[in-house]
Amino acid sequence: MNPSRGPSDPGGATRREALRRALLAAAGLAAADRPSLAALADDFDAPTRAPAPDLASVPAAARAKSVIQVFLWGGMSHNDTWDPKPDAGYDYMGEFAGVIDTKVPGLRINQLFPRLAAEADKFSMIRSMTHGNNGHETAAYLMQTGHAPGERLAYPSVGAVFSMFKGRDYKGIVPPYVVLTSAAGRFSEEGFLGPRYKPFATGGDPNAPRFEVEGVIARGIDDGRQEARRVLLDGLDTMGRAMAGNAELEAAREAKARADELILGKGKEVFDLSKEKADLRDRYGRHTFGQECLVARRLVESGVPYVAINYPGGWDTHSNHFATMRRQCPQLDQGLAALLADLHDRRLLETTLVWCSGEFGRGPKVDWEPPWNGGRNHHGAVFSVLVAGGGFRGGHVVGESDGKAEEVRDRPVYPVDLLGSIYRLAGIDATARLPHPEGLEARVLPAASEGVKAAGLLAEIM
Amino acid sequence: MATTTSRLVPAVILLVVSIGQAAAQTAPPESRARAHRRPIDPLYESVRKPEPAGPIDRAVFARLAELGIEPVLCSDTVFVRRAYLDVIGTLPTAAEVRHFLNDSTHRRAALIDRLLERDEFAAYQAMRWGDVLRIKAEFPVNLWPNAAQAYHRWVRESIAANKPYDRFARELLTSSGSNFRVGPVNFYRAVQNRTPEGLASAAALTLMGARTDAWPPGRLRGMAAFFSQVGYKPTREWKEQCVVWDPFHTLARAAAGDEMPRGFDDEPPPLVPQPLVAVFPDGKAVTIPPDRDPREVFADWLVRPENPWFARAIANRIWSWLLGRGVVHEPDDFRDDNPPSNPELLACLERAMIDGHFDLKRFYRTVLNSQTYQLSSISRSDDPAAAANFASYPVRRLDAEVLIDAINKVTGTAELYTSPIPEPFTYIPRDMPAIAIADGSITSPFLTLFGRSARATGLEGERKSRTMPSQWLETLNSTHIQRKLEDGPALKAILAPDRRPAEVVADLYMTILSRPPIAAEKKAIAAYFRSPEARATLAVDLPWALINSYEFLYRH
């Protein structure tokens, strides 16, 4: 039994019980369900998840108020970026032999990331992320839900779980789960939680002269016309007036008022990058990803619990790999480094957890032969994840891959370890039950009894 | 809540003074006090006094008198829109509205007759049945695409042919054969839990309006025996499966639809036929001889006129579809401790169903022609009992499918409906309205956002009609709707620059709100489109405002 979570720690137990009660209330579950839930939770906590690292150093209070997730859809090469193996030679390193030092002694990354190198004290690098899954959809599901794909239930993503748990106390105008700028496509973020927990996808381009946020800022309609339209709409609300006091219409009116706060009121200002100084915008980079990072900072500043940036470009570089990396890596470097520095400067990094990862890495050995002509294949056996802030310590490296970045050499990190750590830092009970529409048994993360591989939370950097 | 109460206080005083002591004694004083007078609104209401048109109205009006509520009828323009939306799930065109308003003195009854013969009647009611019967190819019921289509086709054709409901139910319960060829066998496949108990629960929910988890223990077990000989048999065809009567259990019951049962190619083991003991939900036991399919024995018991569940459940269900709530509410929650709000009314509906020999169109016609269905939607009471007793027609947001169809019709545009699984993707022809989509797996972001049923449980409540802020973002301000307004050919034709402004406004109102504009509205519009430039550049703001009005978005 873990010392920080055992019965000898009444504070922790009370907190967990409070969370559980809140969740039960949210799920509308009968009181009769409580004992069995508690039993299952204890089962999850029991030391069946070997080898459990020491969590005594993990702070009890929730430190991460918000999360910014940068998702590199397609799967970014790890050894061309954050886990270079210069000794592995041309067949592995290809065109990117250059490796640079970072601010952290001993941490060396690819030369495509000079700005991140300068901020290396602010993040930690997991170099032993692994799940062994090489399919885009299934690996993306694993990385964002922690659950094995192919189960009967379609679990919600970490963002939807945040939106459910954190959304309860969040009173902001912007929805609690925002995606910049478009949803992931064939991945259903809300899962069985249903449309209420769907992320709000902004659409538009924050690097355009006007960031046209879908549903908030309409194309070709300026603010003056928006307001004039409302006067017209109110003037023509004949039935609404005839039915003043109708409960159904009153509820609709309240919902509309919330939408209008976004469209006409303060809500949309959070998306208005013209309020930022030009040189700060330049530092983030005058490209879509850079400005997305800036919007993400503005969103967490206003209290939004979960922001996901789906990188505006693919990393599925089977062919044309090196050219794509040359184009995209500098933008990723610039936006991410500026984001970490800016969050740090505003003292937001302590409460904002940032994580950046694809669904897997890419084959360490270059496919030189046609038709790839210098490409890299899917690789789920080992890859790298950047984590920062929100209670994660910076300047550390977690785990290690082997000499050719093909397999985990030391300290594997599985999806449940990473997500479990994020939930822990945010004060979300990973054993809590999720409200399934048909009352089926479903929890935030799978229990050890479900046979999911786990190697323990990231206690070394928490 | 506090503000509502305080606003009511003057009305309460006025009423107590005007009604006087004697009247107050005949009804609970509290409910009496909550009714309030409101002048007739000629735009939405009729000055004609409602007279009970039959036993349904007499049962409702007697209760309204007790509550101190004087019912008011809706206007003709409200009625035409309401009837189109409720009966065929489709917005009337401007021409249809004008035709109705110029019709004979019995125009409402004539319209009801016309609508019940429309193709969209079968399509729209089949959509509602699709929710109840869980017609969906993929997760979580996994009917598979061909079977979902076959099932839906059977439902739609049954409604179009006005198949008597007792026959409809019997075919659901007793059919055997391929899921691709015999539509109703999918009744036994559209359940996640294919144990005898699971099948019995589905039959109880669908055909008896009862949730078995609220039953006394033992009742479900007794009923499950009728479904203990249902077998599922695969064929050589991909995802084809036969539902059969399998008295000797030669087919191991597959837990999931895609599992191959063992014993498929084996000879059935020699078994001695045994009689089966089952118990009807009313407590009567029956011994079924081995040569009879127990499903037929159950169906014989169920569809009799004197069955205490069957006629009542379907009558109450259709009533709730038309009137927004059941006499027993929810309509799929019949149980002793959930009594009908008006037992006399429920008895009338049941009698109407039985006297009509389960002729559903006749039942629709009876309800639609009642004065109760034709009441105004402007409430004259804040008593919760008023809504439960049908004092006014309840305002409800349009179904997701009906709403997008209406927007498409007004603008002359179409949607893309797809299903990403199984591959290859399924696409639906662009001219198909959303109400006609057979399969719940085929969808669009709009339908999901506006609370279309997930078709997982068969509960009526799975369809969500609560209005959310994100839905307003969609209709007020999304690119999706804005494009339709700006580029829709039907709208462009109305807004053509060479037309007179008064004609444009009149056509927009008829097309979008099914009525002419009133003077105050014309004034507000004239103020907005003061200059020719405003008319030219802002024209689309008028249909934008109209489709975002409660009058468009809500049934009323």
Automatic annotation (TrEMBL), chain A:
UniProt xrefs under InterPro entries: Alkaline_phosphatase_core_sf (IPR017850), DUF1501 (IPR010869), TAT_signal (IPR006311)
PROSITE patterns linked: TAT
Signal peptide location: none
Cited Pfam families: DUF1501
Stated name of the protein: DUF1501 domain-containing protein
TrEMBL record, chain B:
Segment forming the signal sequence: 1-22
This protein's UniProt keywords: Signal
Keyword Signal among UniProt keywords: yes
Pfam family, one: PSCyt2
Domain DUF1549: 55-190
Ranges of residues in domain DUF1553: 295-528
Protein name: DUF1553 domain-containing protein
Organism: Aquisphaera giovannonii
